[in-house]
Amino acid sequence: MCAIIDANVAGEVFGSSPQPAGERFFNWVNKGSGRLVAGGKLYDELESSSPGFRDWARAAVLAGKMRMVDEGKVNERTGQLIREGMCRSDDPHVLALAQVSGARLLYSNDRNLQQDFKDRRLIHPEGYVYSTLKSKNLTSTHKRHLARRDLCRIR
Fold first, then answer.
1. Element containing residue 68 per DSSP (H, E)
2. Inter-residue contact 66 to 38 (CB < 8 Å)
3. Which of 55, 56, 62 shows the shortest CA–CA distance to 27?
4. Is 154 left (phi over 0), alpha (psi -120 to 50) or beta?
5. What pLDDT band is residue 153 in, cutting at 50, 70 and 90?
6. Max Cα–Cα distance, the chain, nearest Å
7. Distance from first CA to last CA of the chain, Å, rounded?
8. What's the rounded Cα separation, in Å, for the pair 11 and 75?
9. Burial of 74 from C-beta contacts in 10 A (0-12 / 13-18 / 19+)
């Protein structure tokens, strides 16, 4: 199952002392059925914001826990999204990554990006948001999202 992690929560997942919801997400990707997708500007943001991500990412690609998406395709789609002007957030590169990769789960605490990700005009089929804005503890919503089997539309 495919997911995208926003740079604003990378520390919650790859930091030295993750909260329960971040730790569960990490375990879902690292040891469970989850798989991250990354590419383009978001990959650069993750690398610069989280040393833990940098260390994990190298091995994750080799282990099949993270799939790198073609940067050119992501950048091209990002440009199209900017020209269309439909995004509320300042993260069209994250939405482009979801569109190009087929990922349907986003872990982010950016409210505008969350709204964009749930907008069916931008993410179709429907996107789901894993967030710790309301609680850093593991909630039933967190568990439900990680149990989904429809989080990746292979392209």
1. strand 66-68
2. yes
3. 56
4. beta
5. low
6. 40
7. 13
8. 25
9. buried
With CA atoms as reference, report the closest residue to 68 among 41, 43, 95, 104.
43
Evaluate whether 53 touches 46 at the Cβ level (below 8 Å): yes
Six-digit token pair at 13? 């997942």
Cα–Cα distance measured from residue 72 to residue 106, given in angstroms and rounded to the nearest whole number? 21
Tokens coding 138: 């593991």
Of how many residues is the chain composed?
155
Across 16-20, 102-106, 132-136, least confident range:
16-20
Token digits of residue 68: 């790198």
pTM of the model: 0.94
Cβ-based neighbours of 29, under 8 Å, separated by 6 or more? 3, 13, 35, 36, 60, 65, 66
Whether 140 shows a pLDDT value over 60: the answer reads: yes
Instruction: Let me know how many helices (H) and strands (E) the chain has, helices first.
Output: 8, 5
| pLDDT tens figures, 56-87 | 999 999 999 999 999 999 999 999 999 999 99
Q: Write out the two tokens for 141.
A: 């919503």
